[in-house]
Amino acid sequence: MFTSRPIGFVNSPYKSTGDIPKGLGAKHEADGVLAILPEFEAGLTDIEGFSHLIVIWEFDRAHGFELLGTPPSDNRAHGVFATRSPRRPNPIGLTIVELRRREGVELHVRGVDMLDGTPILDIKPLLSIIPEEKLRRGWLAEAEARKPGD
Amino acid sequence: MFTSRPIGFVNSPYKSTGDIPKGLGAKHEADGVLAILPEFEAGLTDIEGFSHLIVIWEFDRAHGFELLGTPPSDNRAHGVFATRSPRRPNPIGLTIVELRRREGVELHVRGVDMLDGTPILDIKPLLSIIPEEKLRRGWLAEAEARKPGD
Question: Which of A16, A55, A69, B120 is least surrounded, with the fewest CB atoms within 10 Å of its CB?
Answer without folding.
Answer: A16
